[in-house]
Amino acid sequence: MKITYLGHSALHLEIKGKHVVVDPFISGNTQASHIDINALKADYILLTHGHQDHVLDVEQIAGNNPDTIIISNFEIVEWFGKKGLNGHPLNHGGKKTFDFGTVKYVNAIHSSVLPDGSYGGNPGGFVIWNEDKCIYIAGDTALTLDMQLIPDTCPALDLAILPIGDNFTMGYEDAALAADFVQCKKVLGCHYDTFPPIAIDQAAAKQHFEAKGKELLLPGIGETISI
Ligand code: NI
Ligand code: MN
Q: What is the structure's pLDDT at 223?
């Protein structure tokens, strides 16, 4: 599985030859101006919740990838459906197997309203797995004991993608505890440094994880890691 960090919480995944975009917020992120949105391939677009900083570029990417399927909660899929976009709705605790793997929509503690003020359902995260790998994308969330259910209900994680920017989500200290809850030593940090309220000390965050025997990956925007 290849994972490209696109800044903020946006990711591009390559899984079993399929292209999956997660929470695209690129055109609104001045730090991601070198990312060419129009070059992004997307067989699927996964959306954790309805906030603008997670859905901003969905329509542009879907316009370039007319067969793309949006995977999110029921309300968000319905909202994009009214704009003519295809989707597959999930709700919390539900999973579905697609041609790249199984996707489970799991709990997050946050809020979710769509950019026009429409109800965006309840926010969530995703666990994605196939016979090779399993990853957890927490979405915007507080630390929650619900994370402890993930090791009991999903395959062992190879990577957890967790928000670390504090203020609107967990900070890195809570994210290190979240890594314990989901039983994963390898974490990719997201949702930090995009805006002043979520600026962090990256070296301190990495040290904090290291002291707890964990690894915090902070790839540059546009950088790809393989797991
Ligand atoms: Ni949010
Ligand atoms: Mn957010």
A: 98
| Residue 224 within any structural domain of the chain | no
pTM: 0.98
Of the listed ligands, the closest to the CA of 51 is 1
Which residues are close to ligand 1, an ion, with C-beta < 5 A? 51, 140
* CATH number, domain with residue 82: 3.60.15.10
Helices (H), 49-201: 52-55, 58-64, 74-81, 150-153, 172-181
Quote the pLDDT of residue 107: 98
Instruction: Find the 111 Cα to ligand 1 centroid distance in Å.
Output: 6
CA–centroid distance, residue 215 to ligand 2 (Å) = 23
Answer whether 181's CB lies under 8 Å from 216's CB.
Answer: no
> Which residues make beta-bridge pairs with 123?
none
What is the model's pLDDT at position 1?
97
